[in-house]
């Protein structure tokens, strides 16, 4: 009996086959009728993919049962420190390091003592044209969770 494929390995196969088939992440998100960022994260291994959605993606990308089975598993959500070497990821971290204290102050001023949930959470991604160079627009949308005793 074979062990279940690692979710992140399955995600690499999804990404490779997506590229080979000329599909975008947006097309796959539309195929499964889910938000773009969630779909991309899930197909790369960060969320369990419901069976009917895993079936659709694997059929579209001509991937096997091993990938389908792995996509449906609960992930282990851990951070790989090596990702910080990637310039795109580093810049997101830099933005949080620089603006994090201001965002914290604004959350507390607007909502009181608490935090933004990263579980009851949505994230949107978009591109906005600008004469000085196109803009990357990332929106975090998390439920406010107040600290209470």
Give your account of this protein's structure.
Residues 78-149 form the Cyanate lyase C-terminal domain. This is Cyanate hydratase. Keywords: Lyase. It holds the Pfam family CYNS_N. By secondary structure, the protein is α+β, with helices and mostly antiparallel strands. It folds into 2 domains: 7-71, lambda repressor-like DNA-binding domains (434 Repressor (Amino-terminal Domain), Orthogonal Bundle); 81-146, Cyanate Lyase, Chain: A, domain 2. The chain contains 6 helices and 2 strands. The protein has a two-stranded antiparallel ribbon. A hairpin with a 6-residue loop joins strand 1 and strand 2 (135-146). It is globular and about 55 Å long. The mean pLDDT is 95.
State the share of residues found in helices, binned by percent.
40-55%
CATH class of the largest domain: Alpha Beta
Sequence stretches where pLDDT stays below 50 over 5 or more residues = none
Category from helices, strands and their pairing: alpha+beta
Q: What's the helix count?
A: 6
CATH superfamily of the largest domain: Cyanate lyase, C-terminal domain
Q: Which fold name is given in CATH as the topology of the largest domain?
A: Cyanate Lyase, Chain: A, domain 2
Mean of all residue-level pLDDT scores = 95
**CATH architecture heading of the largest domain:** 2-Layer Sandwich
